[in-house]
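Can't attach files on this board, so I'm pasting raw text. These are the components:
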Amino acid sequence: MADMAAHGAHPPGFAHQFEEMAQQREAGSLGMWVFLVTEIMFFGGLFATYTVYRSLHPQAFEMGSHLLEARFGATNTAVLISSSLTMALAIHSAQTGKSKSTIIGYLIATLVLGAAFIGIKLYFEWYHDYVEHLIPGIDFVIRPEWGHAGSQVPLFFCFYFFMTGLHALHMVIGIGILSVLAIMTARQRFSSEYYAPLEISGLYWHFVDIVWIFLFPLLYLIGGRYGTGVH
Amino acid sequence: MSTLVAPVQESPSESSRVHYLNVSYGIKSWLFTTDHKRIALLYLGSITFMFLVGGIAATLMRLHLIEPQGTLFEPGTYNKLFTIHGIVMVFFFLVPSIPATLGNFLVPMMIGARDLAFPKLNLLSWYVYIVGSLFTLYAIIAGGVDTGWTFYTPYSSNYAHSEVIAVALGVFITGFSSILTGLNFIVTIHKMRAPGLTWFRLPLFIWAIYATSIIFILGTPVIAITLFLLGLERLLHIGIFDPAIGGDPLLFQHLFWFYSHPAVYIMILPGMGVISELVTCFARKRIFGYSFVAFSSMAIAVISFLVWGHHMFVTGQSIYAGLIFSVLSFLVAIPSAVKVFNWTATLYKGSISYQAPMLYALGFIGLFTMGGLTGLFLASLATDVHLNGTYFIVAHFHYIMVGGAVMAYLGGIHFWWPKLTGRLYPDGWARFGALVIFVGFNLTFFPQFMLGYLGMPRRYAVYPAEFQVLNVMSSAGASILGIGYLIPLIYLFWSMRYGPPAGPNPWRAKGLEWETPSPPPTENFEEIPVVTEDAYNYARSDGGTRG
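---
Top answer:
Structure tokens for the assembled complex are below.
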């Protein structure tokens, strides 16, 4: 590690503060994991709060949940899981030294799937909610058929928009990262020796995916949608 | 008694040597630097400025409280003063203080690395800090904020007519600078230690910074999301703390203290790390019970996340939750006490010299002990009912935050100043300054213990006439303390230009950072060192640090 000769040869992407490439790769990967821990705490605050309120107001949360369209949520879940697959394939292609067009292809597929997720969310869900007067703070109408628990339904929708909004923001950042990666790949920055940025961004993408996998049942499926809940 | 460390003669080659300060000049070379040592100095300048802002607010408050009827300011203005003082001191001075300055400078130097793992992220963290500070300073100029530094809902979300959103946004943004710094330290300490530098050979300062970084990355995101939700609620007039739709304002307190109690340890843990370095160096002894001190840092970091409810004993939390939080709060006192015992045992039969950094260290040990023990009064459910919301609390946490954290910060700055700047400061003035600060501090805050015990509530602009004597004592102490802080500011600035050259190791201290020239070259080490011995390998035959 103390070998100064390592500083003589500069492989592409090698930063001066490291002694060798393996050290740099490990540091980058650990850095992303630590960052994801902060992300878990970031979303964790919301998840914990949601759980507390759901146990305080089960009826209102069930009614709120039933106003969401589970089929769009399910479609989006499938879209995101597919995007994680294409992301993993992009990394695998770089690792095994496949052609750059293969890598770019997988990256763009991931990007398109990510964009499709946001498109579905925006057009079929959030816009629909707006039409239905379900956006707290902007336009929310409490319906008489909700009964006495109706005044708490906006609370569910506050969570719904905070959580899905924060998640969508992460998706948008992810799409930005994917675009940069595609350009870097086109410029021959990566090889089977050096593909750390792809690997690290992959971790992020999978994380955003996993957050959705928790959000989907939490928001859309609670209270037994097809069971005997409040209708 | 020694007066000044023997200066090393400046040889011609020494004055022309290239180091991190003279390698390049001009504003750009500082604003775009990725050198951890320069970023440490950028932070040093910025947090000193914020300390002045917070200090001015405190001075005005103490001035106002000289008279029972407080004629100097309107009560509303007084509310803004204590809020600004709290927010600026906590989020913009104490939280970044030791980690962002000494930590940034020393972590790579102490572990034998050329820089932190992510130098650009390190610079970014400083810019994020600056943006957050600007939001807060804007809010102060635009009319201030009057919620107290705790931003309790529903006052902050619905009723306050002040710049809550701008300040909350400022704190939210600054949080990310903490996260980036913590992330950088964790990765650096894991992956960039020099050959031979095993975990149990690390200086205890590194252990303390590591524990602090864990709190940074686990706690800060929670306060960030909480303040973000608060801002949204204020903006949209509806949100998850809003009782009108079934929300619970108390939940805000839970989320707030989930970060803000560990944040107390963010402020004190690095200080404990500094004290371990100072005590060993100026007692010329190995630390007593190395692994106990190291693990107590980790224990504090872990337990600190389980005690937040002791801030809420009287705010409507269930009595059973209160019992558990009380027990856990007593538990966190154990690792803190372990450290105090070990420092004391290190001093025992040491070859002690009383240079300025050591004076701060000894001051720290005494004041921290007082602050810690009075904390146990507050962790007991029954006494807390009487003491909660009084000046007893104010005195307690100032003994920890000022008597502890600021003392350690100043001790550390004095200890590593020769390394930072390559210059020595006048030791006599430094010792005088340390003494003035110690006296001023105690005169300011000891009367507040009595005031609180007698029942004077905190955060009030007026008080019954019977409390005037103690309040005047406190204000007099604050003026001494203020002067005490100006003394080092002056001679440290002076020494940057006129101080005699320090030489690589003026204290004859152990540790990799002392094996480089002062100031160090940009790359820190010509060759990455190989470590073959434990930390603090002092031998008493070294004869102490007396010049």
